[in-house]
Specification:
The complex is a heterotrimer of chains A (85), B (209) and C (981). Chain B is an alpha+beta fold and 209 residues long. Chain B contains 7 helices and 6 strands. With 981 residues, chain C is an alpha/beta fold. Helix content of chain C is 30%, strand content 15%. The chains are: A mainly alpha (85), B alpha+beta (209), C alpha/beta (981).
Chain lengths: 85, 209, 981
């Protein structure tokens, strides 16, 4: 009888532990990188150049847009303008 | 593949604030929102004064993006960090996380309500149709979609602030450093954390961040 | 994942924190951070509050998506003399954005805070501009119509003229008018019958122009900002270019990067000094001693260029004798505070790195002996042989966008357009050019004597109102004043200006902004003033002259906003009312020089291109004859062909007109000799003998005769390349051409006109054309004068400022004697200085008060302080005070203080404790106004037309003191006391 009660208590304890293990939540925050939830954005090169100005890349062509940007970037280097490059 | 970056040459920055007002002008930024600021260290100290223009650094591993509870940040293919204002709840956590103070909040109301976060977009707008009125009103001008670069860098009075593809501006900067024989010691471990001696090296023992 | 940072070992984080704290707590703090901590965010109530949270921008500046044709207009920034080009994008008449112009050889696309913010001028929403004409009635500004304003102003002016004569009116003209408007204003006041007109150059570079023109011919920047790239040493003495001419630093820093040395001497450690290889701090007001202290070392060590001096300089031996006797190192150290070691080092740097530039702005000019300071600078360059060469000279940084042009052809009290003096011959010349009857013109003036007398200056207008007419050098005191594009708070002695306003019969302000004049007047009067809204320089076309003498053509960006009218329309309409409208446009005997075209709302205004053509027709003295509208516009369309280092076009043909640009220098910098058919390319570097005159070369001007006291004044064995006369020669006249046997090179028509004339008065241009044909310079080839015998101090002499901190030095270096008249007004010197010493001002007011610029604002500041993008950056007026001085006076950082001066006035500003200034000097920027001795004057502005940022004007407290030759004000050096408020 006593053995049964001990066994029952042990079983109950084990069950409790088991249950606790299933339902217990982590006490420490584990970081998970989220995923962007907002609207989609388009790429700059998917636009046509403005009607005015001197831009000449081809709409949709990433390489020609990058070329445009990098060429314009060189205007920030005054050595180019000074040494006629 | 373009990787957009800013680089401010402290040997040339004269704290003229051209970059600050260029940004205000092009993006119609209201009073109280400072997307770009010029920071000066050792102001007025003979031989030691240096200035630098700071806005969003468009980090590769952006802390703002990491902490945002509603995940309103994204990074474009060019490495520009943008966010969706319609999702933003104005919690201000990105402001805590950013080491540069890039997130700005328009002040409004008697109790200092925070409003939606606003920050430098590398002049590439946000998640609205490119070059539309909606995109301009919410995020400012989208110059990348016009084949141009941020106006702050294009208008810098002494060409101290460079903005564009990292490789291109690194080349520009390298040419200057070569000519002047110095300038690179403004960067680096020793300058940021050391006793202030230019070109100092990191301590032998001790972890890097 | 780098969110969390591992703990640091060692003292690194401690050190970081300590330095961070030291920035916050102790002496040094960044100016911006200081104001953000202390300042009120004045604009919070503005736009942000009304916007939905996810919007930032108002609809006004729409994107192109809004639809409508887009035009790009090319204009020039209106905020300083660098002349940065701007592409203004306009859609449906609205200025929607601005783009950088990378092709411009002057600025290469760069801008400072002001240039990057000019689009705000075209914004209608929440604009602080003056929008309608206004009249002061019962102490309040009431809106009136243009017609009513014109009628009342015109009637009043004519009544005053009848009662007191034309000299009862004074016009403070503008350095921000373009060349055409400036020129018309000088004509306007002459046709009214007076020389009482002046502009900001008076208080800016008048001492430069007088000093330098009397040294070697013209008083302008000898080279250009670009030419600094060809220099080995850049010496800034009295210039804070990083804040006053930021984009010029592009050229300076590029030069520095390529080996040039930068030396900065300034009482403050300015932002320019932060970029210097050598910085020297010296006492404000001791510039002559400083410069001659350098010249001493040059001569002592034999570093002078002896051959250059023999060929091209007169009087250097006299100067040398005086310098060696009076300015030895110990004396200089006592006077200036600079050690012999530092002086020697600077002199050696200049001598070892030639050619060198000396660069200055107000630091040298705004003193009672400013004319001597600028001459001493020229002497230093002449001694080193660094003047009149590529890469060397006197780079004089002018201020406003068109102060150079306004000085050249505009409203000066002492000259007609082109620096023609007020002699009968000049009036005869200009009457011909203007197509105005000379006898009619003479009758307009009060008398022939008054016609030949220099007028009153902007620095003394209030004295001319308050002074009894018996003490003035004219028949009446001033009764009416027009502030035409000029602010009052850039002149010293604000309280005296207020007293003058109390006495005036009439004040008219013609300006895009009401300016502090409106607020000051309404503070003390109930009626007697009118405000007329002028349009900005973006609402009209015209040419302006940058500091390097290049002319650039502005296109009109937008139509005048609100009810504003552009200045030349106002000039014409007022002239019509006052009875000389026809003469203003040269309408006489069936001929009309300047046609009228339709301006806004169909109203007629003078055509700006015709005005420039008239300038071309008459301004032979400085070579404003070749810069026709067509050539200038072709330049603006083809910026990319101009080389940055030399400013020369390597080639190129204008697509629109076919004009061949090859060989032109950008903007055809004057002198551009002969008419546009001669196709002179302009002169980028003055007096440069290494080039032929048709290639932009030149010589020093021959103005003072051929010999003095037996010494030859003409150049010896030196002439520009290819010159047929190989040595010095006087200025060209008909007689000289005949003597040389070149008279027959003239065409018959030219001969008819040139008979009896010289290179300045020959309207055919033949004399100049023939001189150029023989590769000679029309104004002669002479030596520069190191000794200017027609000035009070023939050799520049150090004189202590009127309010000096060193009474002992006042005894040794006293100021000038009092003068009965300087520009018609009695001017005291010795009396004031002696009283200051007797009153022990140096103990009661122990700090030297100096004033200067901030990069965010310009001039009087009401225009830039009304621009929210700029205003946000500097929200309060402040005083820079050293940590020791602050501790001595019990002043804490960020605290309000009262600054009082011997004038009795005091102003309330915020203290900024910084090491920038020395222990004996304090600095206050001069751009603020809108407070009067601590009281906000918001109530006195017209509604909706007040600047966003207001503060006490430093010039409310600055003291008496004027240059003995030009009446320049001494705003760089006075005394003050600082007391916590």
């Amino acid at each position: 009888m006593r053995r049964l009660r001990v066994a029952a208590a042990l079983l109950a304890g084990a069950a409790l532990l088991g249950l606790a293990a299933c339902g217990e939540t982590e006490q420490v925050v584990v970081y998970k990188q989220g995923k962007y939830q907002g609207k989609a954005d388009s790429n700059p090169w998917d636009n046509a150049p403005l009607a005015y100005g001197h831009a000449t890349w081809k709409k949709g062509d990433k390489a020609s847009w990058e070329n445009e940007i990098n060429t314009r970037n060189l205007s920030q280097n005054e050595y180019r303008r000074i040494y006629n490059q | 593949m373009a990787r957009m970056k800013f680089l401010c040459d402290a040997e040339r920055c004269i704290e003229c604030n051209g970059c600050v007002t260029a940004c205000k002008n092009e993006n119609d930024v209201p009073w109280g929102v400072n997307r770009r600021r010029v920071v000066t260290v050792n102001d007025g100290v003979v031989g030691a004064e240096k200035s630098m223009s700071v806005a969003c650094m468009h980090c590769s591993d952006a802390p703002c993006m990491a902490v945002c509870p509603v995940d309103c940040f994204y990074r474009t293919e060019d490495g520009v960090v943008l966010h969706d204002k319609d999702l933003c709840i104005g919690c201000g956590y990105c402001f805590y996380a950013c080491p540069f103070g890039a997130p700005q909040f328009p002040q409004a109301g008697a109790f200092g309500m925070r409003g939606k976060m606003d920050k430098c977009t590398f002049c590439s707008g946000g998640p609205e149709p490119d070059r539309s009125e909606a995109e301009f009103k919410k995020y400012g001008r989208n110059r990348l979609a016009e084949g141009k670069l941020p106006l702050c860098a294009e208008m810098c009075s002494t060409k101290a602030l460079l903005g564009g593809d990292g490789d291109v501006i690194a080349d520009i900067y390298r040419e200057r450093v070569t000519r002047r024989g110095k300038g690179a010691e403004v960067w680096g471990w020793g300058t940021a954390y050391g006793p202030g001696k230019p070109g100092a090296q990191p301590p032998a023992a001790g972890g890097k961040s | 994942m780098l969110l969390t940072r591992k703990a640091q070992t060692g003292g690194a984080p401690q050190a970081r924190l300590a330095r961070g704290l030291s920035g916050v707590l102790a002496k040094t703090m960044d100016r911006r951070a200081f104001l953000q901590r202390s300042g009120v965010t004045l604009g919070v109530g503005a736009a942000a509050a009304q916007l939905p949270f996810n919007m930032i921008g108002d609809a006004q500046a729409a994107s192109e998506a809004a639809g409508g044709k887009v035009e790009v207009k090319r204009t020039i920034c209106s905020h300083c003399s660098v002349g940065c080009a701007i592409d203004a994008v306009v859609q449906n008449g609205v200025w929607i954005r601005q783009e950088p112009v990378f092709d411009s050889p002057l600025n290469l696309g760069s801008h400072c805070a002001k240039g990057a913010a000019v689009r705000e001028h075209g914004m209608v929403h929440d604009s602080h501009r003056l929008k309608t004409p206004m009249k002061l009635e019962g102490g309040k500004w009431k809106r009136v119509s243009w017609d009513q304003a014109y009628k009342e102003i015109g009637d009043k002016l004519l009544a005053i003229k009848t009662e007191s004569g034309p000299d009862a009116l004074f016009v403070l003209g503008s350095s921000k008018h373009n060349n055409e408007q400036s020129y018309l204003l000088r004509k306007w006041i002459s046709l009214w019958g007076s020389n009482n007109v002046d502009h900001q150059a008076r208080i800016c570079h008048s001492t430069t122009v007088a000093g330098i023109a009397n040294t070697w011919g013209y008083g302008a920047m000898t080279n250009s900002y670009n030419d600094e790239q060809n220099s080995k040493c850049l010496f800034f003495l009295g210039s804070n270019a990083a804040e006053a001419h930021p984009v010029s630093m592009l050229h300076t820093l590029h030069a520095k990067e390529n080996g040039a040395k930068v030396i900065v001497a300034d009482p403050r450690y300015t932002r320019t000094a932060a970029k210097a290889d050598k910085y020297v701090r010296f006492r404000s007001g001791t510039d002559v001693a400083f410069l001659f202290g350098l010249v001493y070392h040059v001569f002592k060590n034999g570093w002078e260029d002896k051959e250059y001096i023999r060929q091209r300089v007169y009087g250097m031996d006299k100067v040398k004798a005086e310098v060696m006797a009076k300015y030895p190192p110990d004396v200089v150290a006592d006077v200036t505070g600079v050690s012999e070691k530092d002086m020697h080092e600077v002199a050696k740097m200049l001598a070892d790195n030639r050619p060198a530039f000396i660069i200055w702005a107000m630091g040298q000019t705004q003193h009672t002996n400013g004319n001597a300071v600028t001459r001493a600078s020229a002497v230093l360059m002449l001694a080193l042989g660094s003047a009149g060469v590529t890469g060397g000279g006197a780079n004089i940084y002018r201020g406003h966008d068109n102060v150079q042009g306004a000085t050249d052809v505009g409203p000066n009290a002492q000259s007609l357009p082109g620096y023609y003096g007020l002699a009968p011959g000049s009036f005869k010349h200009w009457a011909r050019v203007w197509n105005v009857d000379l006898d009619w013109l003479k009758k307009q003036y009060a008398s022939d004597k008054m016609m030949g007398k220099s007028g009153i200056t902007v620095s003394r207008w209030h004295d001319a109102v308050l002074e009894k007419k018996e003490n003035l050098d004219q028949d009446t005191s001033l009764r009416a004043v027009i502030f035409w594009g000029h602010a009052p708070n850039s002149q010293s002695r604000g309280p005296d200006q207020l007293k003058a306003m109390e006495k005036l019969d009439l004040m008219v302000v013609i300006d895009p902004y009401p300016s502090a004049s409106a607020a000051m007047f309404a503070k003390v009067r109930k009626e007697g003033a009118y405000l007329l809204p002028a349009a900005t320089q973006f609402e009209c076309a015209g040419s302006i002259t940058a500091s390097n003498r290049s002319l650039q053509w502005r296109e009109q960006v937008i139509e005048p906003l609100f009810e504003s009218r552009n200045d030349h329309m106002i000039m014409y309409q007022l002239a019509e009312k006052l009875g000389f409208g026809d003469q203003l446009v040269g309408k006489r005997n069936g001929k009309q020089n300047i046609k009228l075209v339709k301006g806004r709302d169909g109203m007629m205004e003078p055509d700006v291109e015709d005005v420039l053509r008239e300038i071309n027709a008459g301004t032979w003295t400085i070579g404003y004859t070749g810069q026709s509208p067509e050539r200038l516009q072709a330049h603006m369309r083809n910026l990319h062909v101009f080389d940055v280092k030399t400013l020369r076009a390597r080639g190129g043909k204008d697509a629109k007109t076919g004009y061949d640009l090859t060989g032109d220098y950008f903007g055809l910098p004057w002198p551009c000799w002969g008419n546009d058919k001669v196709k002179h390319p302009g002169t980028p570097n003055l007096y440069d003998t290494s080039k032929a005159v048709m290639d932009g070369g030149g010589t020093f001007r021959a103005r003072y005769g051929v010999e003095k006291d037996g010494v030859n004044l003409l150049a010896e064995d030196s002439a520009s390349v290819g010159s047929e006369i190989k040595t010095g020669y006087p200025e060209f006249s008909d007689k000289m051409l005949k003597k040389l046997g070149w008279w027959d090179d003239l065409t018959p028509e030219e001969k008819a006109e040139a008979e009896g004339k010289n290179w300045k008065t020959d309207l055919s241009g033949g004399i100049q054309r023939v001189a150029l044909k023989h590769a000679c310079v029309p104004f002669g080839n002479a030596k520069a004068r190191a000794v200017v015998w027609n000035f009070p101090d023939a050799v520049p002499l150090h004189r202590e400022p009127l309010y000096s901190p060193r009474p002992d030095l006042v005894a040794k270096w006293p100021t000038n004697d009092d003068k009965k008249y300087v520009y018609r007004v009695p001017t005291l010197f010795k009396t004031v200085q002696d009283k200051s010493v007797a009153d022990k001002d140096s103990t009661k007011f122990p700090y030297i008060l100096t004033s200067g610029r901030l990069v965010e604002y310009e001039g009087g500041g009401e225009e830039t302080r009304s621009n929210p993008w700029l205003a946000e950056l500097q929200q309060e007026c402040f005083i820079e005070i050293s940590p020791k001085a602050a501790a001595d006076r019990g002043v804490r950082n960020g605290q309000f203080v009262w600054v009082s001066t011997p004038s009795g006035a005091k102003i309330k500003v915020k203290a900024m404790v910084t090491e920038r200034v020395g222990n004996d000097t304090v600095f206050i920027p001069f751009h603020f106004s809108g407070w009067w001795q601590g009281e906000d004057m918001l109530a006195y502005y017209p509604e909706g037309a007040h600047p966003i940022v207001r503060g006490d004007a430093v010039n409310t407290a600055t003291t008496y003191g004027y240059d003995v030759v030009t009446a320049m004000q001494e705003t760089k050096t006075t005394l003050c006391q600082v007391t916590p408020a």
